[in-house]
Amino acid sequence: MTGEDNWHFDRDTRFSLKRDRLLRAAAECFNRKGYSGTSLKDVAQRLGLTDAALYYYVRSKEELVYRCYLRAAQVGAEAMARGREEGDSGLDKALRYLGHHIDAMCGDEGPMAIMSEIPSLSDAHKADILKRSREHSLDFEALLAEGINDGSIAPCDVRMTGNAIMGAINWIPKWYRPDGSAQREQIRTQFIDFFRRGLAPSDPALAADAAPVSDIADPAAGPVAGRSSAARS
Amino acid sequence: MTGEDNWHFDRDTRFSLKRDRLLRAAAECFNRKGYSGTSLKDVAQRLGLTDAALYYYVRSKEELVYRCYLRAAQVGAEAMARGREEGDSGLDKALRYLGHHIDAMCGDEGPMAIMSEIPSLSDAHKADILKRSREHSLDFEALLAEGINDGSIAPCDVRMTGNAIMGAINWIPKWYRPDGSAQREQIRTQFIDFFRRGLAPSDPALAADAAPVSDIADPAAGPVAGRSSAARS
DNA sequence: AGAAAATTCTAGTATTGATTAAAATAGGCG
DNA sequence: CGCCTATTTTAATCAATACTAGAATTTTCT
To answer: Which of A83, B32, B193, B229 is the most core-located residue (most Cβ within 10 A)?
Structure first.
């Protein structure tokens, strides 16, 4: 891989960095040209390499896909963890998580692969990715449940509401194209606004404390209670 | 194709009906096993046919995919049209459309293909599908704009809010598996509830009366933005 | 029944693209 | 310089599967 400035890193990290570049290139190809539409040659070309060179970084195309998905899953999990520790009420935690996840997907973490080819992974890899996906969903549902308990979220079917929100999030790579602009801000604020209104209880007395639009960065939001469930993982 | 009871239909419609079965089988395969994971043989097997037989119904695999996507687009467009004519306020129209679309996706219209392989379509087919997708998005955004105008929807960036909602909808085939139960009701009511709360203005006074005195927006006549819709074929 | 049309099957072909083996290049270091 | 390792390339191989040609079978119609 050409044109790097990684001299100050040791061997192994240089290797990981390059593989990371590979993963991002692959993710972008997959999202733009579709899975069946991207050959290893395409990905390699984007890096100024030949297809065979990729096998220095991954054992197979299957592993390449797996690592792309793994990366997406890890980024999501990290956003979840951050949201959970930064927020107070269930609603606050959920919205912070969502904000972080959006930031990651649309930011420097590079394009995130949309997981449309899980079924064609190897059994072990498929199991791993599915496990992480399920855990992620459960974690989010736990946040919703926590919010319902502490009164920051209106009662609802957490499974379905979670499906709706996660769908909106997961679909982003489908239409988002990084064009430098302030688009990311727009996505985050608008999505979060919509989610907040959708989740918050209609009774303003209960919802009142939920703080206006851009409280993501502001840790000082009025909590309500802080009951209930936490998630494993 | 075996086991039919279509005696009372004429040739052409029988043909179309069978091809429709094919499309549904294909859509289910694509969604369950991924695109690259489904060979024509897989699809054929599900119908008790041999792979070569499929070529009696479609010219190529590319056309099969195209028709799957076309079908999904048409179903969406029809739901949109129904919602628009049945509803009164912008919010009402939007929610009715969403309900119809969910019903269609989770109902007898069979599984709807998730459009993850648009890029590998032929140029003409790709252009057609993209055009329909864009129109669909614009139509929905027009409904949102109409709702904002008539006061039934809180002011927001219709593009982003539309993206969020359509993402939630489009993601459904990813996790929904028809298991006979009343799950579909649950999806529809929970999704719509969430969307309604997310869209409706927080001030009930404004939301209450749909179309107040003056202003533009006789709901029956002129939508605010975006023309279009209506599908051929 | 028997001809004609519709539908499906058998038996390939051909192409694409992943994968591999081994050679070539580059960089650091004694 | 000359060795060692890391990295990339060239040139095949190999398997999967989309697709085709023509035969076989079923259905429809008179």
So the answer is: A83
CA A138 – CA B32 distance, rounded (Å): 21
Q: Which residues contact A40 (CB under 8 A, 6 or more apart)?
A: A51, A54, A61, A64
As given in the structure block, the two tokens for residue B182 are 């009343």
Global pTM? 0.86
DSSP labels, A126-195? HHHHHHHHHHHHHHHHHHHHHHHHHTSS----HHHHHHHHHHHHHTHHHH----SSTHHHHHHHHHHHHH
Written as six digits, the tokens of A210 are: 């939920």
**Long-range contacts of the stretch A24-27 (C-beta < 8 A, 24+):** A24/A110, A24/A111, A26/A64, A26/A65, A26/A68, A26/A113, A27/A68, A27/A71, A27/A72, A27/A110, A27/A111, A27/A112, A27/A113
The tens digit of pLDDT for each residue in B129-183 reads 999 999 999 999 999 999 999 999 999 999 999 999 999 999 999 999 988 777 9
Distance from CA of A174 to the nearest CA of B (A): 9
pLDDT digit string, tens, across residues B202-219: 865 554 444 444 444 444
CA angle A98, A100, A106 (to 5 degrees): 100
Provide the b/e sequence for B43-77 (b: ≥16 CB within 10 Å): bbebbebeeeebeebbeebebbbbbbbbbbbebbb
Instruction: Output residues with Cβ under 7 Å from nucleic strand C.
Output: A 7, 38-41, 51-52, 55, 59-62; B 1-2, 11, 14-15, 18, 44, 48-50, 52-53, 56-57
Provide the token pair at A128.
């791993």
